[in-house]
Amino acid sequence: MVRCYIALGANLGAANEQLEQALAALAQLPHSRLVAQSQLYRSPPMAGMQQPDYCNAVAALDTTLAPLALLDALQQIENQQGRQRSERWGARTLDLDLLLYGDQQITEPRLTVPHYGMAERAFVLLPLFELAPQLSLPNGDSLISLLANCPAQPLTRW
Question: One of 3, 42, 53, 92 is an active-site residue; which one?
Fold first, then answer.
C-alpha cells in the first residue's frame, strides 16, 4: 500500500455535499482504503475569478493502484459528479487532485506529483497539515516550511 493525499474542491451547487459524496466514492475505490479526511474549509476562488467560494479538503488514501490508474479513478468520480472541463480555474462541481503518491516524484503528460501548485495554495497545505503535520515532500521540503512561505490567503472552516 502507498499513502496518497488527494485535494478535494468544489464551488457549484451544495459544495460541501459534493465533497462528502466524493469522500464516500474514495472510500469505495478498489484496492484502496480511505484513511483520514481533513475538515472542510472555505476559500475564495484563485486568480480573482468571479465565482462562488470553494469548499476544500484533503483526504489520505492508502492504495495499491498505480498512479495513472488512481488518476483515472479520480477523474471518473469527478465525471460522475458532473465535472465539466471548459475553463482553467473555472467553477466546478468537483475537483480531485492527486497531491502526493508516497514519496514518488512523477512527471507524465497527464500527471505531475507532487502536485505542481500545492506550495502556493493554503487551501491545500492547511488541510494537508491537519492530516500529516510532520510530512515532508519527496524533495525534502517540510510541510511546515511550505506553510510558512505560502502566500497569505483567507481560509475559514466551512
Answer: 92
